[in-house]
Each structure stands twice: as structure tokens, then as C-alpha cells.
Amino acid sequence: LQVTGGAMAAAAAHPVDMHDDDDIDMGDEGIAAMDVHAAAAPSLVAAAAASAPPGASAGSSSSASSSSAPSFTPLSSTAGVRTTDAETRQIRVPSNRFTPLREQWESIMRPLVEHMRLQVRFNPKTRCVEMRNGKSTEDSGALTKAEEFVSAFMCGFEVRDAIALLRLEDLRVESFDVTDVKTLRGDHLSRAIGRIAGMGGKTKFAIENATRTRIVVADAKVHILGAYANIQVARDAVCSLILGSPPGKIYNQMRNVAARIGQRY
């Protein structure tokens, strides 16, 4: 579009006045409507303030973001751990452990009742030790630990050794037969058991002290109590004796094992 200089001069000489009554005429009805809306604005503000919750202020928008995050009450250390269903475990008492159980009953029952919060009894009809958790039992694994403790005592371990199963998590009992390593019968089996024990139990004590385990030889069964890695070393030494290795060779191995374990710890 081309605008001539005369037209631009005429437009500058006569500007448009937006407030001129001839150009914009709202009339009396438009002015009355504006007055009604202006009068209704304070009432709307008052209604919004009345519908707001008590304690709300002008700065509630800034605090809304902080209060939008959920808040949870802290749980106790025993919440959700104890089971409501009662469980029962039974451990069969062998005939050769009936008298030791009767003599050591108080020392066996006290840690189970006072520390593990279990209900323990001996059933003479079935010759079983029965254990059950109750409302006061806080540890969900207390029944399993108690079963391992009593089973270790039935295998032949002393109470002061078996009670470590209740205090430590990485201990367990491993059992195997002498005939599982090598098929032996008669005097050959007796000599293999004798090599495991040694004269006066010297060989067995050397393996126990070197590997920090406890070994029980009950007839043709061998039970080893200790940590997983230590049980492996003790089991290898016992298997070597069953296969016919001389005790002197085992002593040298245990001496090296004791040195390595001493450096580790």
C-alpha cells in the first residue's frame, strides 16, 4: 500500500479520540450493569473467605506445597515382626540323651523362656521337647533358632557350645556319616573313627582349636558346629583322616590353617 504525504498529514491533524461520546456510547443500561457487577464483587470475596478452612491466611499458597507431602508416624522396632499365628516345633529326644537332658533341663529352658520368649515343655509320652511361640515373642526367627539349639544338644554338643546358635547368625550344624566318605565295615570302620578322635581326643581337639569349630563323633556320625567356612576346613580334615591320612600330616595342615585364621582375625 502506498500512502501519500497529504493523507498522512491529514491523519496527524485529526487524531481519533477514543473517549469521544460520538464514537463510544455505552448508554444508561451498560453503565447500570457495570455498577451492579462492581457492587457484587465485594460480596463474592466475602463468600470465598467464609468458605475457606479456619486458619487459612494469605500465605497459604506457599505453605500448601510443603503440607502436600504425606507424613507418617514412626514405627517401632518390633512392629510387623511378630506373627500372630502360634507355631509349634517338636524335637525327638534320643535314648542316650534323655539323662543329660534331665540334668541340663534348667540351663536349656532358661535362655529359651527368658531371652527368646518361647513356651517350652518336655512331653514324657512322646519323649519330645515341644516349643511354641506366644504373644510375648518378638523375634520371628526365635522358634527356628531354638529348634537348632535343642537339636545341637541332642547331637551331643554341650550347652555352652550349642547356645551360640541363639546369639550368632552365621553358625550352623553339619552332620555326615563316616560311611558316606568311604565304605568301611568292622575293624576298618573302628580304626577310621579312632583316627578322627586320636589318642585321648588329641586329633579332634587340634582340629577344633585350629578351625574354631566343635566336633562330636557319635558312633559312625560326625557333627560339626561352626561357621560355614570353618566347617569346610574341619570337614576336609576329618575326611582326610577317614581316607587314611596319618595324624601327623593333619597336624601340619591345622598349624597352617591356624596361622591363616589368626592373620584374618
How would you sum up this structure, described in words?
There is one protein chain. The chain is an alpha+beta fold and 265 residues long. 52% of the residues lie in helices and 14% in strands. It is built from 13 helices and six strands. The chain has helices at 5-13, 27-51, 60-67, 98-103, 105-115, 142-155, 159-162, 164-167, 178-181, 187-197, 202-211, 228-242, 247-264, and strands spanning 88-92, 118-123, 128-133, 171-177, 214-218, 221-227. A three-stranded antiparallel sheet has the order 1-3-2. Strand 2 (118-123) and strand 3 form a beta hairpin. It is globular and about 70 Å long. The termini are far apart. The model is unreliable at 1-12, 18-24 and 55-65 (pLDDT under 50).
Low-confidence stretches: 1-12, 18-24, 55-65
Q: From the alpha-carbon coordinates, what is the Rg to the nearest angstrom?
A: 44 Å
Which series of helices and strands comes N to C? HHHEHHEEHHHEHHHEEHH
Q: Tally of extended strands?
A: 6
Major beta sheet summary: 3 strands, antiparallel
- Overall body shape: globular
Number of helices, counting only DSSP H or I runs of 4 residues or more: 13
Q: Helicity range of the residues?
A: 40-55%
Spatial order of the strands in the main sheet? Answer: 1-3-2
- The fraction of residues in strands falls at 5-15%
- Based on secondary structure, the structural category is alpha+beta
The overall pLDDT, averaged over residues, is 79
Distance between the termini: 97 Å
